[in-house]
Structure formats: structure tokens, C-alpha cells
């Protein structure tokens, strides 16, 4: 499901897409913007309750349905106003710290392939070149046991993670559920330009480094 936002002042409006489940070179470790996004995500997971301060600051900038930007972020119209922000604050407040997401080059490669394709086509969603997230990871030599979240239109790591956690306009808050899932242990991030929304950021997640099936749970003796 895609949450759409309608621009009112200066910027293209951001939105996000979530799903449960053109090769380019990828570094062995995240760099620059992608590294900052992964750091921001891990900071949120390490201290969910502490991260509510970021959401309170964002809430204070919402008037009705309008979210007023700061630090170069444009103003935009939300779908639900403060309601999903309050939900996210409450959920983070009762969420125990989560494990760190380790960098996966395979997942980052699959995410980068999607960014490369949509940066040219201007498309949105989880399909590019006829491949869904699992198929993209398989093409990189991994497995299909992956999840994926995407944001469009955000220009800094904090707003990327915030949008996914707030999940305005997304029934079921699928992005939030994914990023607060304790079962995920690895992530790959790729961000880049987008023809329509200026920027996009893809995060692929898995229980294993390459999307292969997780080991079966150990049986009690």
C-alpha cells in the first residue's frame, strides 16, 4: 500500500511504499547517505522510547493536515494529521530495545538495482524490470526471504526513518511493523534521485545476510 502526500508550498510531497517479502556496483559497507539512514534506523531500534523525542518535535510542526518543514524540508499535506504520529509515539514508548541491523551487501545490491531502475523510469512501488524484492535479491545470489520499505521525496536520513515509523495514510502501518520487527537482523539501504519525487530510498530487510531461509528454531531438549 502506498501513502500519498499532496504538496502545498515548496517541495514534491513524500510518500512511502511497503512490501513483505539493472545491476550496479555496491560497496562492501554502506557509505554517505545510506550509512546515515542505517545509523538512524539502528538508533531508533536501540532506543525506541528515546526516539519519541524526534516524533514529538515533528508533531509540533503539524497544524491540521499541514506538516511544516524545517532545515530545507518543504511543507506538505498529510493524510491524517497528528493521529499516526500519536500512535507511533505510543507504540515506540512500549517497545523494548531491538537488535542492531547489520549491513548486507546482497540486500543493498538488490535495493540499489531498484533505485537504478526507478530513477530512470520515474516508477514507484516494489516492481522494477519485472522483479519484486525477492526476485531482485535472488538475482544478486541470495534468497527470497526479504522485506522491503521505500520512501519517496525525503532529503535527509531522519525524515526517511520518521516517515516509515509514522506511516501516515498506510492501513495497518506496515512500514512501522517492519522496522520494529525483532526478527530482522540484516539490512541493505540504497538511495538516489527520482524523476518525479526528486529522491527515493529503499531498505531491504532479512533475517539472514543474503535473504536465504532462516534456520529452524531449536527444539527444547
Kindly describe this structure.
The chain has helices at residues 32-46, 48-59, 83-93, 105-121, 133-139, 157-166, 174-179, and strands spanning 2-3, 6-7, 15-19, 62-63, 66-67, 76-77, 102-103, 147-152, 186-194, 198-206. The protein is α+β, with helices and mostly antiparallel strands. It has a domain at 33-46 and 99-206: 3-Layer(aba) Sandwich (Pathogenesis-related Protein p14a), CATH 3.40.33. Strands 1-3-8-10-9-7 form a six-stranded mixed sheet, with helices on both faces. A four-stranded antiparallel sheet has the order 2-6-5-4, with no helix packed on it. The longest helix is centred in the middle third of the chain and has 17 residues, at 105-121. The protein starts with a strand and ends in a 15-residue tail after the last strand.
What is the element layout, followed by pairings?
Elements: E1 2-3, E2 6-7, E3 15-19, H1 32-46, H2 48-59, E4 62-63, E5 66-67, E6 76-77, H3 83-93, E7 102-103, H4 105-121, H5 133-139, E8 147-152, H6 157-166, H7 174-179, E9 186-194, E10 198-206
Parallel strand pairs: 7-9
Antiparallel strand pairs: 1-3, 2-6, 3-8, 4-5, 5-6, 8-10, 9-10
In short:
This protein is α+β, with helices and mostly antiparallel strands and 221 residues long. It has seven helices and ten strands.
Give the spatial strand order of the biggest sheet.
Answer: 1-3-8-10-9-7
Question: Strand tally, please?
Answer: 10
Q: What is the CATH architecture term of the domain at 33-46 and 99-206?
A: 3-Layer(aba) Sandwich
Our Rg estimate from Cα atoms comes to: 17 Å
- Globular, elongated, flat, extended or rod-shaped: what is the shape? globular
Oligomer: single chain
Estimate what percentage of residues fall within beta strands: 15-25%
Q: How many strands, what sense, and barrel or not for the largest sheet?
A: 6 strands, mixed
The ordered string of helix (H) and strand (E) elements is EEEHHEEEHEHHEHHEE
Amino acid at each position: 500500500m502506498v501513502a500519498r502526500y499532496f504538496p502545498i508550498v515548496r517541495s514534491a510531497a513524500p510518500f512511502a511504499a511497503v512490501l513483505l517479502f539493472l545491476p550496479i556496483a555496491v560497496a562492501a559497507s554502506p557509505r554517505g547517505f545510506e550509512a546515515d539512514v542505517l545509523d538512524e534506523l539502528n538508533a531508533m531500534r536501540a532506543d525506541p522510547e528515546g526516539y519519541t523525542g524526534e516524533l514529538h518535535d515533528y508533531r509540533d510542526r503539524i497544524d491540521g493536515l499541514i506538516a511544516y518543514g524545517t532545515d530545507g524540508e518543504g511543507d506538505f499535506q498529510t493524510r491524517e494529521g497528528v493521529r499516526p504520529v500519536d500512535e507511533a509515539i505510543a507504540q515506540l514508548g512500549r517497545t523494548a530495545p531491538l537488535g542492531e541491523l547489520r549491513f548486507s551487501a546482497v540486500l543493498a545490491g538488490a535495493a540499489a538495482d531498484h533505485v537504478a531502475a526507478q530513477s530512470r523510469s520515474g516508477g514507484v512501488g516494489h516492481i522494477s524490470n519485472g522483479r519484486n524484492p525477492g526476485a531482485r535479491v535472488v538475482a544478486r545470489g541470495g534468497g527470497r526471504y526479504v522485506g522491503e520499505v521505500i520512501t519517496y521525496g525525503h532529503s535527509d536520513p531522519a525524515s526517511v526513518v520518521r516517515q516509515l515509523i509514522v506511516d501516515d495514510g498506510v492501513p495497518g502501518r506496515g512500514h512501522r511493523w517492519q522496522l520494529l520487527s525483532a526478527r530482522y537482523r540484516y539490512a541493505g539501504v540504497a538511495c538516489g534521485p527520482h524523476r518525479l519525487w526528486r529522491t527515493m530510498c529503499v531498505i531491504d530487510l532479512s533475517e539472514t545476510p543474503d535473504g536465504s531461509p532462516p534456520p529452524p528454531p531449536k527444539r527444547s531438549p
